[in-house]
Write a structure and sequence with these properties.
about 100 residues; mainly alpha; about 70% helix; about 0% strand; globular; signal; DUF2388 domain-containing protein; CHP02448
Length: about 100
């Protein structure tokens, strides 16, 4: 178990991150909505969805896209639904952005 995690960590640290990674992985459209009470809880929910997918994102990147988990798929869908930049990004770009958070 240690070897795959170490490999994923090393790969994620050495892989060049796309320039738009910080734009869609760190913020979401939910926090930019007009309702201030909804913005904070939506942002919190977004963080939970994306954070839950970090381990699967590492496996996805390390396997060059071969390993896909349900949490990663949910995070990719969530990011694409809530951010225009993420809607046009590849799965690999989004997975790397999740790891960069």
């Amino acid at each position: 178990m240690i070897r795959p995690l170490l490999f994923c960590t090393l790969l994620a640290a050495s892989a060049p991150l796309p320039l738009l990674a910080s734009s869609f992985a760190g913020t979401t459209a939910g926090s930019a909505s007009g309702a201030s009470s909804q913005g904070s809880s939506s942002s919190s929910d977004d963080d939970k969805v994306v954070q839950a997918a970090r381990e699967e994102a590492a496996g996805f990147v390390a396997s060059d896209g071969q390993l896909r988990g349900a949490r990663l798929q949910a995070a990719l869908l969530h990011l694409r639904q809530h951010d225009a930049d993420a809607a046009t990004a590849s799965d690999m770009e989004l997975a790397r952005a999740i790891l960069a958070r």
